[in-house]
Specification:
The chain is 57% helix and 0% strand. The chain is mainly alpha-helical. The longest helix has 14 residues. The chain is elongated, with a radius of gyration of 15 Å.
Amino acid sequence: MVLSKKRSRHVIEEIIALFPDAKPSLDFRNHFELLVAVMLSAQTTDA
């Protein structure tokens, strides 16, 4: 399923409207730290 740019933008706007105060739970200060945090989070379990 491929969404048009217009439809994609609408979906994103709806999500932002539903969750206006959403914040990432990963702690990072720059793009490299975000990359490493995502890679490490994929290796951990939630249990």
